[in-house]
Amino acid sequence: MGETRQVDVVVLGLGVGGEEVAGRLAEAGLDVVGVEHNLVGGECPYWGCIPTKMMVRAGSALAEARRIPGLAGSSTVEPDWAPVARRIRDEATDSWDDKVAVDRFTGKGGTFVRGTATVTGPGRVRVGDQEYAAGRGIVVATGTAAVIPPIDGLAGTPYWTNRDAVETATLPGSLLVLGGGAIGTEFAQAFARFGVRVTIIEGSDRVLAMEEPESSEVAAKVLTADGVTIRTGVRAARVDHDGGFTVTLSDGSVETGEKLLVATGRAARIKELGLETAGLDAQARFLSTDERMRAGDKIWAVGDVTGNGAFTHMAMYEADIAVRDILGQGGPGADYRARPRVTFLDPEIGAVGLTEKQARDAGLDVRVGHVPLASTSRGFIHGPGNEGFIKVIADRGRGVLVGATTAGPAGGEMIGALSVAIHAEVPVSTLLSTIWAYPTFHRGIGDALKAL
After folding, report:
1. ∠ Cα 36 170 38 (to 5°)
2. Prior bond to 172 cis, omega within 30?
3. Are 257 and 113 part of one and the same domain?
4. How far is CA 238 from CA 186, 199, 342, in A?
5. Is the full-model pTM beyond 0.85?
6. Do 306 and 142 form a contact (C-beta atoms < 8 A)?
7. Mean pLDDT per 10-residue interval, the chain, length 452 residues
């Protein structure tokens, strides 16, 4: 064992949140050690947000070209996955090489260590045979990993996770997707638009089960129109692999596919870190944090491990709070009332705050406003591809919005206005007197507010 090195802060995991914390603390002059066992930047730039949205964008271009008949003439479309795979490899991921990200961190004065960290006591971290003593403390930003369910026969088969699906240079003829959440449905639609025969297997009674029922309805409608088979209310009971995959479902029926994508959720990477030596519960599903992102004495946690929403924007938000706390800068603490999220289907489904059910379960006096996008002027003008709706949830008692969903061609952008309204607690009366530009999709927000 080498001698223990005294530093200010050790950051475990250099995904989106960890990289932000480590980089900013290093820029502020602290002695920072950043530890990462895989790629600096984490899931988002290499296997998540960036490459998957490139896939979605490519699939949407094909879909839009197929909408030309009846709108603007005639079209024939021949999908080719090669340019998509090439763009992901060359432009997004540098062939899954993180040199640029590592150099960015060390250029700010940080010390980068490639390896797996173990917490050995309060403020103490070991990587290989080197031990670090962090005077200011430790930041846990180890993210999540895909959950592989204990389905009979699944282990040992060449199933895909999101990483394999993003890295594939060629498309399978058919694909089975376990899980109908955001990740499963986005991959399903993108691959289906390139001609892959896709079947989604979802245990609950609807896809996007965490979102509004109306969101599930519009997602199921567009996925089916793209040729995706959706099996809800059934679970995979057994998986067999012999050249291709055969999945026996809980109702006794069978689905087959060349490839199998497991998208049944993600779990925080906490257990193996040794956090119990620093007084934390290493068996917890997530690390619970206060409004300063403190998980314990001299321990902060940011990003997916906190369980506050597995999104890049949440990791960046929490990273900022942790950095300000470590540097003693004060400022606003964590406030999760207006967490936005977007499912990048076509139509995009933006959502923020509470769903109608969550608001009712919280005991609020709920009012709901809803407008189908096709009934708005812009929806009518848009024509093919105008599926969607705007739904707002108000707390009648306080006279403010507490949740909203915007589904449509610009669903992920429209939610921005409603995020501001919920975060700033703009009175509904003020929103009702807002001037909404015509003819835009977002003008439908005004219609939905009137429907409250």
Report:
1. 5
2. no
3. no
4. 24, 16, 32
5. yes
6. no
7. 90 98 98 98 97 98 97 97 98 97 98 98 97 98 96 98 98 98 98 98 98 98 98 98 97 98 95 96 95 97 95 97 97 97 98 98 98 98 98 98 98 98 98 98 98 96
Give the largest CA-CA distance in the chain.
Answer: 74
Strand order in the sheet with 366-372: 340-343, 348-353, 400-408, 389-395, 366-372
User: 186 and 120, same structural domain?
Assistant: no
Residues in contact with 90: Cβ distance below 8 Å, sequence separation at least 6, in sequence order: none
Domain that holds residue 391: 340-450
Residue 259's CATH number:
3.50.50.60
Contacts of residue 234, Cβ cutoff 8 Å, sequence gap at least 6:
201, 202, 203, 249, 250, 251, 253
Q: In this structure, is residue 278 part of a structural domain?
A: yes
Q: What is the pLDDT of residue 1?
A: 58
Left, alpha or beta for 123 (phi > 0: left; psi -120 to 50: alpha)? Answer: left
For 251, what's the count of Cα atoms within 13 Å in the CB-facing half-sphere? Answer: 9
User: Are residues 250 and 272 part of one domain?
Assistant: no
Could you tell me the two tokens for 441?
A: 């999709």
**Are 273 and 260 found together in one domain?**
no
Return the pLDDT at 312: 96
Decide: 11 and 22 in contact? Cβ < 8 Å.
yes
* pLDDT for position 386: 97
**What pairs with residue 256 in β-bridges?**
246
86-106 per-residue burial string, b: 16 or more CB within 10 A, e: under 16: ebbbeebbeebebeebbeebe
